[in-house]
Amino acid sequence: MANESEPQVSFEDSSTAFAHLSNGDLRFNYWIFRLMNNAGLTKFATSLAEFALSSRMPVRWAAKPTVFRVFCGGETISESISVIEKLRESHVGAILDYSVEGQEKESDFAMTEQEIIRTIQLAKDNENIPVSCIKVSGIASNGLLEKLSTGSDLSSSDKEAAANLHQRFERICRSAYEANVPIYVDAEESWIQDAIDRLVESMMTQFNREKAIVFQTTQMFRHDRLEYLTQLILKGRREGFRIGNKIVRGAYLDKENARAAEQGYPTPIQLSKQATDDAYNAALQLCIENIDIVEICAGTHNEYSSIYLTQLLNEKGLDKNHPHVYFSQLYGMSDYMSFNLAAAGYNVSKYLPYGPVRSTLPYLIRRAKENTAIAGQMGKEYSMILKEINRRKS
Ligand SMILES: Cc1cc2nc3c(=O)[nH]c(=O)nc-3n(C[C@H](O)[C@H](O)[C@H](O)COP(=O)(O)OP(=O)(O)OC[C@H]3O[C@@H](n4cnc5c(N)ncnc54)[C@H](O)[C@@H]3O)c2cc1C
């Protein structure tokens, strides 16, 4: 797997990494990351947030001026515009991610559909929003997606809900197609993913004839995904449609392993972090080998994988800003990678979550947990912010 060519980008330049932040914002982020590096404090705060979420305690006053400000664009699209503008100045695109999770009612699904279509329309007229994105669990219940994935018997109301889901998803993909704005479909838990895969593939065959409009997401922490991706590319070649693919390692690791252990089936997760890393890098290689019909987004904060992708592009003689290749990180995370990649000439975008504070809380809790230092080791983001503060001082 190791690729011996020279790295094409350096992630050590803190001045490029944080040029978009004023001294005040930099200090603010410093304090947030400093607090999150305190494992005990983060555990306490996330437990409190989880309790607040389940007990409907008010949380907005505490979350909005703190973690929400660092990791989200705003509560609405219009509140997020200033962040999008700031990213544009550094040639970093924004992917508006309407972050509501765990919806259960048809009326909520209809609202989410309208919101996603609004983000597509905004992207159509704003070249700094290169794509849109969607979580299928925002437009259908998890219960239904699980039944569809496992092939369980459907009641007549399930059948009606399944038809609604298909029509809703098709309307969203059609509006992306008509606006010429690609849409990334997020990958979710393995027990609902088969239904998502089938929906995405059917839309790919419909809308990806000239370019990739509908993007699948492959989670390389699943040991079956490299084979899935290989077969998907073969199918695309056979049937004449393009493959859009966001490649991620995968969230929900503990949840996947815990459920498998509890229910006594073999875990779908790779046996080690190294196996996930190898599969991730192999997927990058596979996509670059098929770049004539594959368009990718490398959704990762992993330095090696990002550098590896720059090397693959270089070795294949492809432009740094090849239109089929995007690097992407989450807003507020790994700025030192995003902004250095963009300054070096690569296509870069940030997932920019937005939505009512309470609805974004599960997302924010995941970010806080991910940024906690392991065994007292300082997180890279935090150490880069500190480096930049010291550089500006001197
Ligand atoms: C732009 C963007 C879009 C994303 N979209 C999605 C999405 O649609 N669906 C989704 O699930 N996630 C998504 N993610 C999250 C992503 O899957 C990862 O959780 C996160 O980015 C951390 O992985 P990493 O590649 O940045 O690298 P690293 O920090 O190097 O890797 C951490 C990841 O490695 C894997 N891992 C860790 N330990 C083990 C182990 N013991 N065995 C096997 N694997 C292990 C896990 O996947 C873990 O998240 C997205 C991330 C980004 C940046």
What is the structural class?
A: alpha/beta
In terms of DSSP E residues, the strand content is: 5-15%
Order of helices and strands: HHHHHEHEHHEHEHEHHEHEHEHH
**Relative helix content:** 55-70%
Assembly state (oligomeric): single chain
Radius of gyration: 20 Å
Q: Characterize the largest beta sheet: strand count, sense, and whether it forms a barrel.
A: 8 strands, parallel
- The overall pLDDT average reads 92
Give the strand tally: 8
Cofactors, ions and other ligands in the entry = flavin-adenine dinucleotide
Spans where pLDDT lies below 50 across 5 or more residues = none
- Side by side, the strands of the main sheet go 1-8-7-6-5-4-3-2
**How many helices?**
16
Shape field: globular
Q: What is the rounded distance between the termini?
A: 41 Å
